[in-house]
Fold these 3 entries.
Entry 1:
Amino acid sequence: MELELRYVNKIKEAKIKLNGLTVIAGANSSGKSTVGRTLFTVIKAIANTKSLDNNMNKMLWRKHIDSFYSRLRGLKINNKNQIFDEIPNSTYYFTNVFENTVDKEKFIENLKKIIAEQKSITPRQKKLLEEDLNNLQIHIENRNTAASLKTELQFLIESEFLNSFGSSRPHVEKALVELKSEEQFEVKFSAKDSFVEDDLKCSAKDTFSFIDDATYVESPLYIHLSDVIISSQTWRETEGRHSLLDRPMVPSHIKDMIEKIVWAARYTDRKVSSSSMNMNDITGGQLTFDPTTNQLIYKEGDYTFKTINVASGIKTLSIIQLLEDAKIIGPNSILIWDEPENHLHPEWQIVFAEKLVELAKNGVPILITTHSPYFLQAIRTYSARDEMEDFVNFYTPVEGDDHLETIVDVSDDLTSVFATLAEPMNKIMDING
């Protein structure tokens, strides 16, 4: 995949490859997190659109299938049983067959042929049955995908950025976003004053088949408040309406992350992990769910601890293992993690970096941001060891005279990045010099 941004928040320009493990390294307030939140916004909007379209299509399918069978049953003909020899004899069976048929167009055309060949059916009845099948054919794929996607993008932009999606510079008219994939999928849109414009374009006959989901981890500390966050609402859920009397509102990526972690801890069988590098072996325990209190807990042997009493680093390693074991992250579900080193000792930064390289090697697309030289060097070392160098890309923000950031590719030379990250240490080492 490739993500291209222009004039999004502090970012003037960015063109970022997402073909394995992508690392954006740099100082605070340089636009790194903007990239991650924008990627989450676009992929989550696509996933939501796909889900909503599928649900709507199925509802419409069932409506027209019910109408079709109601007409069939009402036919006053002698050979009705013969028709049902060629057509599934119930709406339930028909719906199951239809939903699992790959070539639905051909399936419907065969039904039309069967009806057309029935000489005992009157022309009017044939026409009505044909119209039911035509209506079913229309809804094989949603015809308003772009409109649905625009709506989802708008909700998520409001949720993730509020009123700060586009650049605040007066000469900039629009923010531009484009996401392309290897499967010849592309979505491209612009936004003015945080509102998605009508020029949205998306190309994919099989609606958004290239990726299913995105998980954005901003901080492991949110699991302290998992019960509060679960009961909160997002901008999407309120459709933009909010008052002080409502439940608390949180950004979509926070509630999405917590819902996934709680679900995984509650329902995933974790007796056997497919991971060759198990974080639970390093931490000595694992996140799980206590059904008696309806809360996340940390279990270590025969002992259990409330998450608020568990070290942040342990929570970080436990979360990544839980997401992997539950298959919440995988080849069709990208992981976005904002500065994971914030809660890790340098030793565990190196462990976490090795884990990310392992996941990327196993096909998980990953985008991370960092300002840790330990973490950065560990990624570089393990990607070389595992022959992943061609699929690990490094970027850094560079500030221009207009105080906007251009995200540049530094995969071939990280010298300038290490120099920037090491500068604070050099200053304090020379404080008496």
Entry 2:
Amino acid sequence: MSSTADQAKSGNPEALRKLVCEHYAQVFRFCARRIGQQAAADVTQEVFLTMQQTIKRFESRSSFSTWLLGIANNHCRNHSRKTKAEWLPLETWFSPSASFESQIINTEFINTALAKLSEEHREVVVLHELDGLTYPEISTLLNIPEGTVKSRLHHAFQQLRQTYAPTQEGAKA
């Protein structure tokens, strides 16, 4: 654990402030991608309030950042359930340049593909492929075994291949 997190655990307000400053942008982006920028501002504040209230329970089994994103993920899920929010389109994840038509087409294709996955499969694909998290980080963040993360990714990609791979006849033509 970082010395800043150690200090924050002991109640040092300056250390808490430093953790907020260091991680605010990452948590905001994480939330905005899932629930939209407008809601992300409020949810990010809730994440840091929860962090302040629960930091004494941080046990260093993961990085501080992974622990904090786990809190953010829970708050985003709760917000989505309360508001019955739909899957956000990929445009909220990136800002594709309008000058690159292929980027726009790829974005639409990926949106369609992700929307066809179950929530559990979509979640691990997004965390791994778009957020760049490792299997252990996703495991910690979602509180599921690492093998379950690998299995969900495998099944998600298998489903995507079955849905979008060219048929044998189309491949021969």
Entry 3:
Amino acid sequence: MKKPSIPTFLSSFSTSGPIRFQAFDLLATLVAVVRTNGCVVFANAALEDALGTSRRTIEGSQLPDCFTEPQILRHALEGAGSNEFAALRYDAWLRRLNHEPMPVHVVVAQTDTAGEAIVEMLPLEQQAKQDREERLIDQAQANKELIRNLAHEIKNPLGGIRGAAQLLQMEIDKDLTEYTQVIIHEADRLQTLVDRLLAPHRRPHLVGDVNIHEVCERVRSLILAEFPKGLRVVRDYDTSIPEFRGDREQLIQAVLNIAHNACQVLAERMAAAEARITFKTRIARQVTFGKQRYRLALELHVIDNGPGVPDSIKDRIFYPLVSGREGGSGLGLTLAQTFVQQHHGLIECDSRPGHTDFKLLIPLP
């Protein structure tokens, strides 16, 4: 269904004073209702936060003066007032109190009221984030189809190769069986790889009540058992996070895959007893990801102080069979992303030398 424009959205509310604009406070984008002379009639809460000043101060002021190039908005408002266009878009810099100017994409649109316009300002960082999330979702869907098709294509020939090698082994001299054993061993190794690729699509989604901190504690105990020396696991939990419906085992596997990858790249820091992984949980409010807006979402950060993700694979780390270390299968992050997306969530990565942060976002009821 097509998303209604902001002017249409506005017209569905009462036309009496501030009540007419209250719905704009629910939006994450910055919105101002202005007269075509530039005077602000209403500023929503998001704009108030972005400018770092009170709504009372903004309302009655000149909105063009909030931009580094005010004349562009003045011309746009004049055009809206004279019906030269229904909507106009351009990029600009928004001034902020005690902060650097913010790059925004500005949309100026007419309303149903003469002499009035709506100015919507979308931070370009937010737009880039939304584009990145959409790419991740599309990428994960493409990966899913590729993996399923490729795995099935490999699986049948593998069974034939292994069976033929077993029959051949019964017919040849014992001195030559080491060669058939190599064939059987490699066929079994590939079969294991294929099974791992298909695992998320075979196993039923077992939904129950999940406490995210129990998931973190389980992963913590597993990685400390495998890496007992030189590694410190820091817990930074928001204990107010409620339980939610999900597949506990899938989430344990997703977090474990990320944490295990981190441990493997922390080898040098472990030798110096400086390796650190942090599990950090928070509640995010009024967030948009996966093309949907959620009132509440779980943020689980798995942060390490390792060397960071190599630049050469930063954009491809969730692709299957892409690995940043020697001997890696390249499946851990792919499977983690699949498991989290089965909870209508998403995994993002922010990495630089000394700080890599994998953020799991999962909607909360």
